[in-house]
C-alpha cells in the first residue's frame, strides 16, 4: 500500500486473512482486519472501513501491546472521515499506552496522528508543540515514512508550520522548529505523489524479508536503541567501547537491510525480535 500497488496489497491481505483463520490467531486476526480497513480507505471504500472501526473497542485496563497497531488503524479511519473531536478524545484517553519513551516508533506514530487531529479540530496553538517534538525525534534519523503515511492532512500540517513566525514556541518545553527539515518533508510529499505505483518484489522488501538472526549481544544493543539510548549510554550499559557499539549497530542494520535507527526498530518489531 505504501508503494501504491493495491493489487499486490490485496493478494497479501488475502493470504494473511487465510493464515489467521487457519491458525486461529485472534490477536493477529484483529490486526489483519485493521490492515484491511486501511486498504479500504486507500482503495476508496470508506464505508467499509468505518463499519470496522465502529466495531473495535479498547479499554486502558485490558490494553496489551498487540492493541497498539490496531488502535492506530482505527484512528487512521476516523482521521480520514475527519472525526477530529472523537479522534482527539481517543488519543488523549490512551496517551499513556501509546506515547511511551521506550517505544520510539510507536510514540512517533501517535504524535503524527495527534498533530493531524489537532489541525483538523482547529486547535492550531497546540499543533506546533506536538510537531516540534515529533520533528525533533525524527530529524536525526531522517525519517519520512511516519509523515507520508498520514497523507495530505499531514502535508497541510507541515505547510502551516512554515507560516509560524521564527523563534515562536508554544511552550518552554517545545524545541524550535527545523524549517529546513519541514521543507525537506514537503519535498518528499511531492516526490511521493508524482512517482508511479511500484511493484515491490520480495527481494526489495528487505526488513520483512530479513532472516539472518541477531546475536544475543546485538539483540541487547537493539533493545537499548529502541529505548532511545545513545551509543555512549549503550556502551556504558554493556561495558564495552563506543566503537564496539558502532560496529554492532552496523551489523544490525546490515542484517535488517536498513540504515537508520527508526527503520531498524520498525523492522525488528515486524519480525518480533523486540
Automatic annotation (TrEMBL):
CDD domains cross-referenced by the UniProt entry: LuxR_C_like
Gene3D superfamilies (alphabetical): Tetratricopeptide repeat domain, Winged helix-like DNA-binding domain superfamily/Winged helix DNA-binding domain
Location of the region described as Disordered in the Swiss-Prot/TrEMBL record: 192-212
Residues covered by the HTH luxR-type domain: 207-272
UniProt xrefs under InterPro entries: Sig_transdc_resp-reg_C-effctor (IPR016032), TPR-like_helical_dom_sf (IPR011990), TPR_MalT (IPR041617), Tscrpt_reg_LuxR_C (IPR000792), WH-like_DNA-bd_sf (IPR036388)
Protein keywords: DNA-binding, Transcription, Transcription regulation
Pfam families found in the cross-reference section: GerE, TPR_MalT
PANTHER family: DNA-BINDING TRANSCRIPTIONAL ACTIVATOR DEVR_DOSR
Protein name: HTH luxR-type domain-containing protein
Amino acid at each position: 500500500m505504501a508503494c501504491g500497488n493495491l493489487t499486490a496489497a490485496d493478494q497479501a491481505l488475502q493470504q494473511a486473512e487465510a493464515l489467521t483463520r487457519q491458525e486461529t490467531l485472534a490477536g493477529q486476526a484483529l490486526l489483519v482486519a485493521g490492515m484491511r480497513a486501511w486498504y479500504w480507505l486507500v482503495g476508496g471504500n470508506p464505508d467499509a472501513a468505518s463499519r470496522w472501526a465502529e466495531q473495535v473497542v479498547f479499554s486502558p485496563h485490558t490494553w496489551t501491546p498487540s492493541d497498539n497497531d490496531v488502535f492506530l488503524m482505527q484512528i487512521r479511519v476516523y482521521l480520514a472521515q475527519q472525526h477530529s473531536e472523537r479522534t482527539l478524545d481517543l488519543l488523549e484517553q490512551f496517551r499513556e499506552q501509546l506515547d511511551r519513551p521506550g517505544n520510539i516508533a510507536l510514540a512517533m506514530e501517535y504524535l503524527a496522528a495527534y498533530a493531524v487531529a489537532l489541525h483538523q479540530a482547529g486547535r492550531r496553538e497546540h499543533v506546533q508543540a506536538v510537531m516540534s517534538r515529533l520533528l525533533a525525534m525524527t530529524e536525526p534519523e531522517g525519517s519520512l515514512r511516519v509523515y507520508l503515511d498520514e497523507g495530505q492532512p499531514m502535508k497541510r500540517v507541515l505547510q502551516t508550520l512554515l507560516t509560524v513566525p521564527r523563534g515562536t514556541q508554544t511552550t518552554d518545553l517545545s524545541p524550535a522548529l527545523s524549517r529546513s527539515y519541514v521543507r525537506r518533508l514537503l519535498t518528499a510529499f511531492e516526490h511521493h505523489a508524482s512517482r508511479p505505483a511500484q511493484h515491490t518484489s520480495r527481494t526489495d522488501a528487505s526488513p520483512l524479508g530479513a532472516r539472518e538472526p541477531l546475536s544475543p549481544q546485538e539483540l541487547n544493543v537493539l533493545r537499548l536503541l529502541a529505548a532511545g539510548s545513545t551509543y555512549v549510554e549503550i556502551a556504558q550499559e554493556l561495558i564495552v567501547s563506543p566503537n564496539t557499539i558502532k560496529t554492532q549497530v552496523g551489523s544490525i542494520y546490515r542484517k535488517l537491510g536498513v540504515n537508520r535507527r527508526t527503520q531498524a526498530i520498525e523492522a525488528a518489531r515486524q519480525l518480533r525480535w523486540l
